[in-house]
Design goal:
The chain is α/β, with parallel strands linked by helices. It contains 15 helices and 20 strands. The strands form five sheets. An eight-stranded parallel β-sheet has the order 11-10-9-5-2-1-13-12, with helices on one face. Strands 14-15-16-20-18 form a five-stranded antiparallel β-sheet. α11 runs antiparallel to α12. 48% of the residues are buried.
């Protein structure tokens, strides 16, 4: 029997199914491919898989546009394959977390096809419509993927609302019939044995387009509590709400230990600190390191005992962290380990995005025609129109495109990195001969083996999830260090976040102590940190 808070002590692994492992040579990753890699995931030490969407979808946004919530897309397999995955994963002590995209559906969902037949159709009110004349939308709200948030349907003389692409119409959460349909659908997945849910852009469901409200609408937490109560509440599932707009106060609601909303929040404050303030992610600037320390520490302290956070550097929407804030050239291995060390001493549930554990890098040599992602392609078109040069745009894409995370998983040095025997749907990163799973498993000093150590260490040491956190040297420009105390233990995490040697006066009690985990075998002197050096010490109090 699972304890109520079992998800506090695990590590989650995110799979982007299209790019993980192909099993039938069509060049697209699939469910059978995932089943074939469960041994690998068990070896890493993870206990849950967050599976990006595998439901039926025209794939306008790689599955984040669902046309049938209760069927599996043929390119990934069948419902039976999904049941097998749940069953086989369970044998490896791994739960399957489904990705629920509830803010919008695909325009090819039967609900929307019906909805646009007539304003009297029973499904019409499943979506958000406003009367209007062609060329004159209700207001000038923009879609997150570019262009207007309103699309005209001439037969109805109405516009429908979409926060994302035209093919992703927003569901009308103010309609109780829609909410009930969603709850029934979720309950059928619970009956099939899934271990939990990740809720896509959940902070955007309670929108009020007439008032320009998309995030954090007034009804948001009322709807989430109703959702939880009617579905997963009390079922001991792991549930995680994706919320770009969460602050601490809201995060306490999302992750209230009373289970009224979700197990945890997945928020992004720390991961947007290398863009110009008030601008888009494409508007690059150097990382504000002092702020990064402040932000991560704030979340550690403020949610302690009253909420629960996710710990991550990567997902399918973010560039690869080793290329972003590490060094994917001469210090790739050291910096990838250092970045992991910073997070793995913290309270929260860590998420590994596929390939992170072997230090996969950005595809920073892509040409414009290599990009597949709708967000990247639309940004390119829009910025070109607005007078940006191709070079500027390409630079932003190299640094920030979501496609950096979506190149196929690098399993070995054979053709197509062992991802497929056919033609891969998306280019394999050309560094796969050096960076791959086979290499990582055989090398005892690999990033992979370091992650295994960190994961095992977390599970054995309650100080990580229960300890009191203090940031050390908050104003230091290169060192990220913190201390935790719990019962009779003290944990120190000391990291050099940069590629130069740093000398710093470390606490006296570390003198003559050996780190329990470190990314260099020996240090010259305790007070000298090598490039990207990371150490974790566990002391008796
Ligand atoms: O992402 C939420 C979201 O707002 C992103 O579009 C984000 O703004 C962008 O990726 C930053 O570059 C979720 C999913 O994770 C994403 O893959 C989907 O495209 C999006 O929702 C729509 O479902
Ligand atoms: Ca396939």
């Amino acid at each position: 029997m699972l304890s109520e808070y079992w998800w506090k002590n695990i590590v989650v692994y995110q799979i982007y199914p299209k790019s993980f492992q192909d099993s039938n040579g069509d060049g697209i990753g699939d469910l059978k491919g995932i089943i074939s890699r469960l041994d690998y995931l068990e070896k890493l030490g993870i206990n849950a898989i967050w599976l990006s969407p595998v439901c039926k979808s025209p794939q306008e946004d790689n599955g984040y546009d669902i046309s049938d919530y209760e069927d599996i897309d043929a390119m990934f397999g069948t419902l039976e394959d999904m049941q097998n995955l749940i069953k086989e994963a369970d044998k490896h002590n791994i739960k399957i977390i489904m990705d629920l995209v509830l803010n919008h559906s695909s325009d090819e969902h039967i609900w929307f096809k019906e909805a646009k037949k007539s304003i009297n159709n029973p499904y019409h009110d499943y979506y958000i419509w406003r009367d209007g004349e062609e060329g004159n939308p209700p207001n000038d709200m923009k879609s997150i993927f570019g262009g207007s948030a309103w699309t005209y349907v001439p037969e109805l003389r109405q516009y429908y609302f979409h926060q994302f692409a035209e093919k992703q119409p927003d569901l009308n959460w103010d309609n109780p019939v829609v909410r009930q349909e969603i709850y029934n659908m979720i309950n059928r997945w619970i009956d099939k044995g899934v271990g939990g849910f990740r809720l896509d852009v959940i902070d955007q469901i309670a929108k009020e387009p007439d008032n320009f409200i998309t995030q954090n609408g007034p009804m948001l937490h009322t709807y989430i509590r109703e959702l939880s109560k009617n579905t997963f509440k009390g079922n001991h599932l792991i549930t995680v709400g994706e919320a770009w707009g969460a602050n601490i106060e809201r995060a306490k609601l999302y992750s209230n230990p009373d289970g009224s909303e979700f197990s945890m929040v997945f928020q992004f404050e720390h991961i947007a600190l290398d863009q110009q303030e008030g601008k888009e992610k494409w508007d690059l600037c150097p990382l504000d390191f002092i702020k990064l320390k402040k932000v991560l520490s704030k979340w550690q302290i403020e949610l302690h005992n009253v909420g629960w956070n996710s710990l991550f550097w990567n997902n399918h929407d973010l560039p690869r962290i080793v290329s972003r804030w590490g060094n994917d050239k001469e210090y790739r291995v050291e910096s990838a380990k250092m970045l992991a060390t910073v997070l793995y001493g913290m309270e929260g549930t860590p998420y590994i995005f596929q390939g992170e554990e072997i230090g996969m890098t950005n595809a920073s040599y892509f040409e414009l025609e290599d990009y597949e992602d709708i967000e990247s392609i639309n940004m390119y078109k829009e910025r070109l129109k607005n007078g940006y040069s191709k070079e500027e745009i390409l630079k932003s894409l190299h640094c920030k495109s979501r496609d950096n995370a979506r190149t196929p998983m690098q399993w070995d040095s054979s053709e197509n990195a062992g991802f497929t025997t056919g033609k891969p749907w998306f280019k394999v990163n050309k560094n796969y001969k050096e960076i791959n799973v086979e290499q990582a498993i055989s090398d005892e000093n690999s990033i992979f083996n370091y992650y295994r150590k960190l994961i095992a260490f977390r599970k054995e040491n309650p100080i990580i999830t229960n300890g009191d956190y203090t940031l050390l040297y908050p104003e230091h420009k290169e060192v990220f260090a913190y201390k935790k105390t719990y019962e009779n233990k003290i944990l120190y995490v000391i990291c050099n976040f940069y590629g130069n040697i740093v000398t710093i006066d470390l606490p006296n009690e570390l003198e003559n102590k050996m780190p329990v985990i470190a990314n260099y075998n020996n240090s010259n002197s305790i007070n000298e940190l090598k490039p990207y050096e990371a150490r974790m010490y566990l002391l008796d109090n």
